[in-house]
Amino acid sequence: MRSPSALVLALLGLAAVTQAEDAPSQTLSIKVLLDERSTKCTLVTPLQTTQLHRGVKTLGDVFVQTKVRQNRVNVEEFKTLPRESQEQVWLEIFGAREEPIINELTARCPGGVVQAGPVDQEASTLAASPTIKKIVDSGDPANRIDVVFMGDGYTSSESSKLFSDMQRLTDDMFAGETFAQYLPLFNVWAVHQPSTESGIGVNGKAKNTAFGLYRDGTELRGVYTSKPSEARRVCALVGTNACDFPSIIGNDAYYGGLGGEFVISTSSPTSGTIVLRHEMGHNFGVVGEEYDGGQVYKGANSARSLSAITWKHWLTNPNNVREEKAALTYTNHMWYNLKGGAYKISFTASGSYKRWMGVFTISGAPKDSSISITLDGKPLAWKSSGLNDRSFYTYQNRTGGFTAGKHEIVVTGNGPFDGDIIQQLCSFDLNEYGDESTFMMDNEDAIGAYPTWDQSNTKTYRPNNERCLMRNMESTKFCSVCQENMWLKFFSRVQAIDNVTLSTDNKVATVNAIPLAQLRKDSDPFKQKFPALAAQEKYTVTWLKSGVEQTQFKDSFVANLTNVTGGAAGSWTVRVKFSTPAVRKDSSNLLQSEKTFTVKA
Fold first, then answer.
1. pTM, to two decimals
2. Which residue, of 44, 150, 306, 465, has the fewest CB within 10 Å?
């Protein structure tokens, strides 16, 4: 009689994958799309060997990663699967052996597993072979995190523009403050799959482009792909283990994007990086939102109660775990065309708060004369960003709160209204805060329990007020909790040691490690821009022969094995541990790596 795992594999048309019989030395994975209404799963990526996942610690372990499906392949999908729906979820199941993975798959997909529909073979056959360039080369994809930027809406004649755009976005992301410290862990690829038409679609209609990006309306909001199967196919062409984080970049000058299976953004010089780093933050850290009025709040940056906070080791006041005093007074993504007249925002204040901050996003307002704003009939100073692109505008009062009662903000568009980008009030959020004794604001890096409210007005807690870009999209920095979480997430897929090599005479062993800490190169942007922080990183190296530490080689990456009692012959282990002030708690010891080798007599 066939085992359940073999039966499921047969139904899926899969071949068994050979795995190691001892401790996990490889990782297998399978990827499906779960529809939680029907409990059916659609197979997306069959069971296969993948990059090592250190969350799989034993042969019987499985590790499941989930993401809400955000993409819609066409506007018809929005009718049955609204933008806010969380009913379809990507599941990637990792394990060391086939049977535990298939058992987990069966448990999570009680409605069964079906094959995905066929890829558009005609489109794939007719498409020219993509041009692939490795624009950041940090090492073998088997031990690196690989980001793949695939351009959409770039014609054959726009190849140089594509690679220039991808280089700019990469520099903004990894040479700047946001991800510079992690750069040695990353490879970054740029892919040009030529499109017939330039740009991306609007009003729910994709252009004739490689991946069919489109906006569902004209507002500067979500950007979707109508050809996800083609994007998967092209990303796989980059190479084995080289498509960890696929990203589609639309050839478009304005704000827009999406998270989920693919990080989608545009090449906009003014907002492309803003969207990209926020959406990458979701996917890299496997975390939800921090701003108010969102849908998904989960992961290392979210807690449902004060007792559930996982970042107590980062608290600015560790002896006083309290809720910071704040209120969400108003939030709305109204997407209102100001050509239709003034927009009135009415709210009621309790009078019990001492400070407030309001954040607008507005598009199509490139001049100071474009917009007028009043608060209770009195003008608020307006200074345009100078851009047609969707931009962020902040008003705040740190010395006084609203009086008790009703208040009104009026936003008036003054035209002109005939531009390519509509003059639109996209969103407005208004928060009220206690004074500094009840709400930490003056220290922008303070870590506490800051309340956040989702679209249903359910309260959760986030670690930081407004410094973290997972809340404040204009920020270029992650809070300390998110920074730590990313180190741990990245080191769950890579190891500090790339390999250990022996000289031809087996006398000298060399540890080749990812160039962090004292191995960072002088050209490393993190070392150049943040030398004091880089200097606090350290690799600790320990050599053991037959389980006994050889202290003469402590913190050395090269060891002359003959300088040991009994000579070089025997069983050796070298252990490398990375430490950084950005990580205070590593419960799974992910920042430590070791390799074992044998020198024959």
1. 0.94
2. 306
Contact between residue 226 and residue 184 where contact means Cβ atoms under 8 Å apart: no
Question: Contact at 8 Å (CB) between 435 and 352?
Answer: no
Domain 496-599 part of CATH 2.60.40: yes
Could you report the per-residue pLDDT of 115-166, keeping only the tens digit for each? 876 554 445 545 678 999 999 999 999 999 999 999 999 999 999 999 999 9
Q: 260 and 90 in contact (C-beta within 8 Å)?
A: yes
Low-confidence ranges of the chain (pLDDT < 70): 1-23, 117-127
Residue in the structure block whose two tokens are 């083609």:
230
Contact 431, 415 (CB under 8 A): no
Phi-psi region of 526 (alpha: psi -120 to 50; beta: other; left: phi over 0): alpha
Using CA atoms, how far apart are residues 491 and 593, in angstroms rounded to an integer? 10
Task: Write the CB contacts of 397 (distance below 8 Å, at least 6 apart in sequence).
Answer: 355, 356, 357
**Could you give phi then psi for residue 130, rounded to 5 degrees?**
-70, 155
Quick one: fold of 121-285? Answer: Collagenase (Catalytic Domain) (3.40.390)
CA nearest 65: which of 458, 493, 463, 496? Answer: 493
Annotate 238-264 with b (16+ C-beta within 10 A) or e (fewer).
Answer: beebbbbbbbbbbbbbbbbbbbbbbbb
The helix/strand/coil state of 535 is helix
Query: Token pair for residue 601?
Result: 């007599």
CATH of 325-385+392-439, one of 2.60.120.260, 3.40.50.720, 3.50.50.60, 2.40.50.100: 2.60.120.260
Detail the DSSP E strand segments found in 333-368: 336-337, 343-349, 355-363
Per the CB < 8 A criterion, the answer to whether 293 and 331 are in contact is: yes
207-218, pLDDT tens digit by residue? 999 999 999 998
Tokens of 441: 């604001």
Please give the Cα distance from 425 to 533 (Å, whole number).
41
Rounded distance between C-alpha atoms, residue 56 and residue 92, angstroms = 13
Cis peptide before 118 (omega within 30 of 0): no
User: What is the enclosing helix (H) or strand (E) of 329?
Assistant: strand 326-332
Strands 405-413 and 371-375: antiparallel
Rounded-to-integer distance, Cα 301 and Cα 299, Å? 6
Q: In whole angstroms, how far apart are CA 41 and each of 262, 310, 591?
A: 19, 32, 35
Alpha carbons 490 and 286: distance in angstroms, whole number: 11
